[in-house]
Amino acid sequence: MAQGQRLICAAADLAEAGTGIRFQLRREGREVPAFVIRWRGQVRAYLNRCGHIPVELDWQPGEFFDFSRLYLICATHGALYDPATGACLGGRCEGRGLAAVAVAERDGNIYCEES
Length: 115
Fold this sequence. Notes:
Elements: E1 5-10, E2 21-27, E3 30-39, E4 42-47, E5 72-73, E6 80-81, E7 88-90, E8 103-106, E9 109-113
């Protein structure tokens, strides 16, 4: 494992547009909540913080997708986000997207970058 990278989960733990994996990420000397999902075969990770106000998105632990499984949704406000980019697609996020987290999939595992 490279310096500054931390194991999040096994790659097999992430089903396409399925339940995400929550984890804590060290940023600027403190722990912040984040999550990782699989979307269209790619692993994507974001801080678990709505673009509108800093509340966690998931409506149940690890449930970040809406019922259609096409969008990430804020359980508090109903804001919709693009799973591929974190961009705000509508709702109270008012154009503010999700903050991406650098992740890598290799050797059957998912790793994140910490700063």
